[in-house]
Amino acid sequence: MSEFSTYVESQDATHLLLNPEAVNKGGEDKIFDWFTRCLAAKKDGRDVVNGTLGSLLDDDGHLAINRTVERQIRGQPSIELVGYAPLRGLPLFRDLAIELALGSNRQAIEEAGISAISIATPGGCGALSASVSNFVDVGDRILLRARHWGPYKTIIEERGCKIATWPFLPETPEAGLEHLERAGLATELTSLAQSQKRVLIWLNDPAHNPTGLSLQASERRAVLEEVWEHALAYPEVGITLLIDAAYTLYAAEPYGWATTLKEEIARRGDFPENLMLCFAISCSKSHTCYGLRTGALVCLHPNKQFTDKLVEVLLHTGRGTWSAAPRVAQRAISEVHIDAELHEEWQGERDSFKRLLDERRDAFRRAAAAHNLSLDPTHDGYFAFLECEANLQVCEIAATQHDVFLVPLEGGVRIGICAIAAEHMERVAAALADGLAQTR
User: Fold this and answer.
1) What is the pLDDT of residue 5?
2) Residue 266 burial (CB < 10 Å; 0-12/13-18/19+)?
3) Which of 15, 86, 156, 245 has the fewest CB atoms inside 10 Å of its own CB, making it the most exposed?
């Protein structure tokens, strides 16, 4: 062995080859870790209940697939299957993304002078990543509710930023604001506006992950009022509210935010120049094409010159990050929505999935009440959430003693309503109740 080899082997390769920020990265994703444990238990012959997934399963445990979308994907010609998409995304899909964000409110919003643009991204995560790359400075804090999807932290830290939070639920709810801590939001907005040149808020609503909570109309209006008023109070600070709409098409009010925006514009008139509203669109859940990574970032602002520039900015970010978003699902999904017959078929299947989720949520609520479990408010989408301090121990007891696999997250346990048949909800509630009893 040479003297050089001895020298290299004596050093810590981690610090030699990785930069200081990279050294601190690592760790398994909790969700996939518990999913893997569940699969291993099932392979060993155990009668498991799998509540770890963020994918919709049918009652037999198979991935639920919108067959209209699947057929349209499989029927694409070769060039659509394997070819590059334009860097901005296919024009049809980019227009559809705006429709998915605004619904029937689009015409009124655009007629009020609001310019809407979009760029295709690899899923909703791509849209989130693009926003933090461009709408704040390195080192800034992104404002989130205290309870949020865990990978937000990874996305934010990968861009050299940090997190600020406001309380998820109010300690003393106001009438009409039972699910919104408005004062906490105002306090954090003021703090960020006074310390940063730009403020970015990520709000996963409706059908919040991990609780299933959906803000009501009065609560959406209060959020928008706070953001709007802070934009007026701090005209030298850019403020962006991004709605993470990953689960919105399974909610009771899928276009609630667009309706609230339309009403606020009509009430107030002028839209502040330093305010932008965005939507992170994901087709993973709504069109059951999770792995095809199809989404978009939709941005709304009254200045068309600015939004034209924004398209170029976001194109540059995409080119330097993921190049172009995958093509085939952009094409297939656009065709489904353009064709009236296909759209009706897609919508019928989507509605059947929503009914399945609603039935499961109702069954879990009943089972939870029977076992005196106090859940966070849960209305729509894929998940429910049980607050508890001993979350890891509760999940271990549920898994090892009841063969019920859930996910321990900060502050409690996430229950994957999307993956659990209604007939198993009693078993899930019993396992959670037993875990809580043993850890008290």
Assistant:
1) 52
2) exposed
3) 15
